[in-house]
């Protein structure tokens, strides 16, 4: 354990006395100035109308962006510690951003102090331990690129641009999950700055309760600065994307055949049914993945045979596969939601296709820029057998296959409507799955996909009491409650 350099807190008492007579923004400004005073030259504070301020506040979905009072780019764990101490003493709201891909408003943004972890860019490889040391400001693209020279990789994101931090702290469904489990199942350690200012490691042996909590528990305990992830050998892979329109029956059949017949853990697909108002048409996108330079004969033939608008499938590096899947949000607002499934049937897949068509009909004339997306992720039901004991999932009895629902739109006037529709659509599909015999009415929802007003019980279930105890131990003054997100 290292204790952070002591921050001179006495001066805040007098500052706070002044602040009592001003509004909350004044207090936020005081916090910004105090942070600027205590951090080292490795770190910086930025104010509006600078390029750094804009990029620090940037989020993938426009609805997740807030203009903060200032932003901080800490460069060392010690400076993160000082920042947290100032925020705790001044009780200033703050946001912690990895790569800002949450589609829940306020989960990594704030009107107070925006912390952007962008300077934590380390990607190093310990060949003896088969462990990668990954700074909390990385996106997966950089991690794959950094590990490529060693012919190893990690269980990480499937789409370009996603942050390591939020992805890993929430679970992490990867193309490699059939082989190795969720990303949390491959974490061997976290370095984390606690709100008391102390910097600790959390592993299976050291602070093991914190280790358990961080594997799915996001920012409830502190700010993670480094992730230690298991690595696996990486050759070239085979795969890429196929885009079609007007052949959803064939896409459903190909997806169903793959789901029913392919148990090879090196194989994975994503099938996404979209309606895009900007194009005025329904577009279906499939991503194919096989963890070897050539897939077994016939495995993906149904997909390759589809009449397509574009096809970008080849033997390539893992990074190149990820780069072929860029998902732009085009400056739109956006929410995610999810249905937890144990199984896929053709009638359920058809109901999912119908949701995109039904809501397109309801929304296209009234909701400018609407984009409707249902992403089928047919992973192996054995996915949870690779790990144990983590904040999420709360039970490993049945593998959860999360359906990802994503809506985007242009106007803040439509926020409430979209929230209602996404909740209604998820409920409807849940009922269909239940009617087909799946026991999913109360199944835990994946926190990286669940819509913001989902209850904590619905996500963390039986783990909640234990998580609340761990939180009280590591964050006795609820400093982390000043930042947004799923809160124990
Ligand atoms: C296009 C797209 C594709 C996606 N694909 C997948 C996928 O294939 N599989 C999957 O599982 N998920 C996927 N997701 C969901 C993704 O896992 C979440 O959005 C994830 O939270 C993003 O991480 P981030 O660091 O970019 O997010 P951020 O918005 O920066 O952070 C998310 C949460 O983590 C907290 N946090 C961030 N950094 C830290 C830190 N250092 N310490 C403590 N707390 C921190 C934030 O405060 C916030 O509450 C996808 C999302 C998008 C937009
Ligand atoms: C943030 O401020 C900029 C510059 O003033 C403005 O263009 C932008 O719309 C604001 N963003 C939000 C989300 O309020
Ligand atoms: C990685 O694999 C390539 C191709 O097989 C090989 O040429 C290279 O030497 C390997 N590099 C390392 C560090 O093993
Ligand atoms: C955490 O562990 C790493 C690797 O063993 C070590 O380099 C680092 O100093 C440790 N950090 C703390 C705060 O103990
Ligand atoms: C795969 O599963 C489907 C059911 O979806 C079945 O009809 C088909 O015969 C199977 N195909 C192969 C090649 O086994
Ligand atoms: C295919 O994907 C690669 C990235 O992996 C990209 O550079 C290339 O432009 C894509 N090709 C087409 C035809 O879209
Ligand atoms: C299509 O979806 C709507 C909305 O969920 C539902 O009311 C309708 O019954 C569905 N139609 C079919 C054919 O499944
Ligand atoms: C959606 O937003 C548009 C544009 O602001 C507005 O005209 C419309 O009334 C809104 N519709 C609903 C149902 O919220
Ligand atoms: C979330 O809010 C929407 C809209 O108010 C509502 O329909 C839905 O039931 C809510 N979900 C939960 C879990 O409270």
From TrEMBL:
**Keywords, in A-Z order:** FAD, Flavoprotein, Oxidoreductase, Signal
Cross-referenced Gene3D superfamilies: 3.30.465.10
* Signal peptide range in chain numbering: 1-19
What is the protein name for this chain? FAD-binding domain-containing protein
GO molecular function terms listed in the Swiss-Prot or TrEMBL record: FAD binding; oxidoreductase activity
Q: Does the keyword Hydrolase apply?
A: no
Concerning InterPro entries, the annotation shows: BBE (IPR012951), FAD-bd_PCMH (IPR016166), FAD-bd_PCMH-like_sf (IPR036318), FAD-bd_PCMH_sub2 (IPR016169), FAD-linked_Oxidoreductase (IPR050416), Oxid_FAD_bind_N (IPR006094)
Q: Which family does it belong to?
A: Belongs to the oxygen-dependent FAD-linked oxidoreductase family.
Top-rank lineage group of the source organism: Eukaryota
Q: Which residues form the FAD-binding PCMH-type domain?
A: 64-234
Supply the PROSITE patterns for this chain.
Answer: FAD_PCMH
